[in-house]
Amino acid sequence: MDAATIAGLLADPARLKVVAALALGAGTLEEVAAAAGLPLKDVALAARRLARAGLVTRDRHALALRAELFGAAARAAAEAAPPPEPLSADPAQDAVLSAFVRDGRLTSIPAHRSKRLVVLDHLVRVFEPGVRYPEREVNALLAVWHPDVAALRRYLVDEGLLSREAGVYWRSGGYVEV
């Protein structure tokens, strides 16, 4: 059974409640109905559909969730997923960025300066060269990456990637594509 099939089965609220009740230890139609707060008829219909799909085994009124299918489907989906796009053409930089950037967000600010510089050089690219940004806009752009905008702003200024004067910032360093 694949992950899409499982997701489709769980898209129905009644079937989701039945699976949850079974996962929590209910073993009969009556126990599932009580735990899920569903009428017995709805539980029976959902259990029949889940059993036909193979996610639940059914022996008269006794039900059992085949929980091992969740892990197997997740592993198969992970193996079939395409590898993530590299964040940098340089393998060393990509390794650092892959360790600290997930889904377009910075998971943490690197403690080691060399790694922090790689991350900051990647981050500073949201600022256009020649454009002046008020602090509020700098904060908004950095908040997309990480909640500690003050630390990011300070690191960018300290490393010479951004310059600041009278609450206005501009890009003054980092790699620029031409």
Automatic annotation (TrEMBL):
<dbReference type="InterPro" id="IPR018656">
    <property type="entry name" value="DUF2087"/>
</dbReference>
<feature type="domain" description="DUF2087">
    <location>
        <begin position="105"/>
        <end position="171"/>
    </location>
</feature>
<dbReference type="Pfam" id="PF09860">
    <property type="entry name" value="DUF2087"/>
</dbReference>
<dbReference type="InterPro" id="IPR036390">
    <property type="entry name" value="WH_DNA-bd_sf"/>
</dbReference>
<protein>
    <submittedName>
        <fullName>DUF2087 domain-containing protein</fullName>
    </submittedName>
</protein>
<dbReference type="InterPro" id="IPR036388">
    <property type="entry name" value="WH-like_DNA-bd_sf"/>
</dbReference>
